[in-house]
Amino acid sequence: MTEASWFRNPSGEYKQMRKFKLAGRYFGCRLASAVWLVLATLVAPSAYAQDGSATNQLFNYPDTVINGIISAELPKSPEECRKICLDRAGCAGFDHSGKGMCRIFASIGSAKKAPGSLAETRSLISGYDEPTNPPLAERFEKLKQTDNDGDELLALSHDAFAQGNRGIGNQAIQLSMQRGNANAKLEIAQWYDPRTFAADRVASIDANKAARSYFELALEGNERAVTFLTSLCREASNTGSAHANAFDSFLGSTYCEGSLNP
Fold it and tell me: How far is CA 227 from the centre of its chain?
């Protein structure tokens, strides 16, 4: 086609060429969208599994080294290595050798035994030993069957609250108390105590709930409970107390009068 003939019919030619260009652009967009959809399907789950940012817990594997993609390697103490990993959203875990070398991993494939080393990961290592601190829900299920005196359940409760898991934290400490653990009962009582109220544990202050638990434990000879109840009764009788409003319906005649001896 010559330049002269092109200008003889510019409208038709222009429309024809423009239609072709638009069709090509549409095809290109469809192709790009399909490519991105495939990439998102393949890459997104892998990235999520690698960075482990859904939890701030690290599972502990003693005498272990990791096989995977290393993102950093530097001489640090185990504590410094752990902090680096916790502070990085892309850290899937780390290992630390007996020679003081810290390795940060972007992804983890497997692990093997190495005496003197340690490894900590955001997700459980598939096909490997159980960590010394298995997931909270798994620990709770086991302790429901094995912890008769509630000591380990109480420790699990502390770990759960520290990790922000109030559900397991509350279940574990309540079950510990039901199994007769005095420390669990004292701790729950202090949540309700106006002086040590735990707004992140219970909905409201309740001096009577606190006093009742102190009273029951005091009757069993628990010296800490006697101390807590005595000081609570003293606080309730102090009209100038900063917590005076919390004692408006306090049953002082029930919990604060008479002898604590059975």
Answer: 34
Assess contact for 128 and 110: CB atoms under 8 A.
yes
- Give CA–CA dist 109/216, Å, rounded: 54
Q: Which of 186, 194, 195 is nearest to 249 (CA)?
A: 194
Q: Write out pLDDT tens, residues 95-113.
A: 999 889 999 999 999 999 9
d(CA 92, CA 105): 6
CA distances from 130 to 104, 108, 175 (A): 21, 16, 25
Query: Which tokens in the block code for residue 24?
Result: 């090509």
**CA-CA-CA-CA torsion sign (12, 18, 19, 20):** positive
Token digits of residue 189: 């009582």
Please provide the size of the chain in residues: 262
Q: Report the alpha-carbon distance of residue 170 to residue 156 in Å, rounded.
A: 10
Residue 9: Cβ within 10 Å count: 10
What amino acid is encoded at 180 in this protein?
G
What pLDDT digit, counting tens, does each position of 135-168 carry?
Answer: 999 999 999 999 999 999 999 999 999 989 999 9
The C-alpha angle 199, 205, 211, rounded to 5 degrees, equals 125
